[in-house]
Specification:
2 copies of one chain form a homodimer. With about 350 residues, chain A is of the alpha/beta class. The longest helix of chain A is centred in the last third of the chain and has 17 residues. A 6-stranded parallel β-sheet of chain A has the order 2-1-3-4-5-11, with helices on both faces. A 4-stranded parallel β-sheet of chain A has the order 7-6-8-9, with helices on both faces. Chain A is elongated. The first copy, chain A, contains 15 helices and 12 strands. In chain A, α13 links the parallel β8 and β9. Chains A and B meet through α1, α5, α6, α7 and β2 of A and α1, α5, α6, α7 and β2 of B. β2 of chain A pairs antiparallel with β2 of chain B, so a sheet runs across the interface. Chain B binds a DNA duplex (16 and 16 nucleotides) through α3 and α5.
Chain lengths: ~350, ~350
Amino acid sequence: MSTARPHQDARRSSTIEDVAERAGVSRATASRVVNNSPRVSPGARAAVLGAVEELGYVPNRAARSLMTRRSDSIGVVILEPTARLFADPFFGLLLLGINDGLSDGDVQLVLLIASASREEARVERYLEAAHVDGAILVGPHGDDPMPARLTRSGVPVVVSGRPSGGSAVSYVDSDNRAGARSAVTHLIEGGRRRVATINGTLDLSSARDRLTGYRDALQAAGLELDPSLEVAGDFSPEMAADATRRLLDVCPDLDGLFAASDSMAAAAVHALQDSGRRVPDDVAVVGFDDAPIALTTRPTLSTVRQPIEAMGREMARLLLHRIDAPTEAASHVVFETELVVRESSAGA
Amino acid sequence: MSTARPHQDARRSSTIEDVAERAGVSRATASRVVNNSPRVSPGARAAVLGAVEELGYVPNRAARSLMTRRSDSIGVVILEPTARLFADPFFGLLLLGINDGLSDGDVQLVLLIASASREEARVERYLEAAHVDGAILVGPHGDDPMPARLTRSGVPVVVSGRPSGGSAVSYVDSDNRAGARSAVTHLIEGGRRRVATINGTLDLSSARDRLTGYRDALQAAGLELDPSLEVAGDFSPEMAADATRRLLDVCPDLDGLFAASDSMAAAAVHALQDSGRRVPDDVAVVGFDDAPIALTTRPTLSTVRQPIEAMGREMARLLLHRIDAPTEAASHVVFETELVVRESSAGA
DNA sequence: CTGAAAGCGCTAACAA
DNA sequence: TTGTTAGCGCTTTCAG
């Protein structure tokens, strides 16, 4: 009984040996053509290319890897706890950018999600076993030892967001400090004098930088810093709503609010409205990210836009370069942000 | 000048040959232990395991693949046009579920994003070259030939959402029809009589099914179907806002609205409010997905929840099974949905 | 239960 | 410019 499995044959792809034979050259020459070596005669090249076409030849990656000691793939490691991960379009856009930056080469994107810390160990083992040529780390907190550890074991790494360790590892970041400053300056220039901020966990450099930018702006305007107007939270909307209510208790004449993310800003707007304040008339609000939610709140949200997709593309570019030149010093790329003024701070 | 590259040595991992030598057995026996073959004596097993431990041995995937003709990785192909892709937490959650379903085995997730159709061809070539053991296709439209073509060339495939072709290919879906029916029935039971629906592109089976569910509910209640109350769109909030305004023109006494996604429902709520209607007092609204946005609108959105993460997990499970038993008939798994009643249809 | 030997498909010296 | 040769690290007959 011959179990008919037609695709078995369909999939039995041709090897470089087949190509060489068909083209009437040796395996080596065929290989040279496939790998774009210049040391091949035009005639041989044409013959091989023809054979490749006819046979639909595609190189076997495993065999190639075994020889070149390259996997032609990179790992993208998502370290963020899962909840935030997917309520937030940040990761998706970053992935899109990374994918785009990779598609020039012939490099595959292996997605590694490490939500629990048990997972984190598994991922690290995988990376260190040289199964990928390098890794992009998304979302490590300031004290995460993974970037340094991977670098030490020779894995090329690029990190999203400035790590606390600093300059030893390559990273791509947006200018969170300048972005926050521009948002708060905008509020002040609109006449606001009692401006508060609601932030994320301060073990994230982005959160720290946004806080610093907030303070920069106040000081530049000669306004006093009031610690009771600075709230550090966890980026969650629930927290932001609570924080807003508490801010109103402490400071009933609050007239400006800078939230370190749009989802927090949206929650704050609702809390303000629930308390009877009009936005922006009584309190002007600016968020951060320019997430889709910024357009669906009423009023629409003013915000600080970061070029997330471009950042992803740059991370890919940087990593690819780093893989080619592992001894070079780490690079740090910081992207400009852009203030987007909408209704929530109109005439602020 | 010896360029110091300490990690060069650090990464030079040990081979199964090293393990065998250390354990005092042959390569073959070492391999058997590593691959859990039962035909090994306890003594040899212990010796090999010890050597593996001491040497920190990790098998070389490329070499293994070359031999086994398996890549131990699967492709997850995102076919959605990019815009929708990342405003929507759907994909992230699905990825999370897939990752989870995969983590039992030792299978890696290769992410392939095909936004443009040029990309689609590239992805298809990659998949057909047997670089992955199987593929999960996310977001194919009804007329997309990729699932069928991959299946024909012998690539095990699982698709998200019921494809128009039907039963030849395995898929995982949620019961969109029943979900929509429950939403609209809920509106009707709350006394609404003029209930409209705003939908997505009807070449997506999910959109078609939600429309059918809407009609089911009206007919079950003995209400008349009115084509002017059915709007087919593109899932975008802008379109939904437009559609809402038009619906109000056509039918000023509209008192219920079912939108096929939460982002459309949110836009509709705003359009209703802008037109002076109160939600839910004048018009009750129900969305679909239970996306984060459902909690940030005012009023909060009633919606139909689908177990996205579980669906992703099931897709992974199904694919893994299909890879092991490629001749088995395709499986179709449909998940129940759940109506979540919030403010936008309170007392509906 | 174990070992010897073959070979997966490819690239990279080395010779010619 | 080309071909020959030698493996990369692993699994798997096939003998024993």
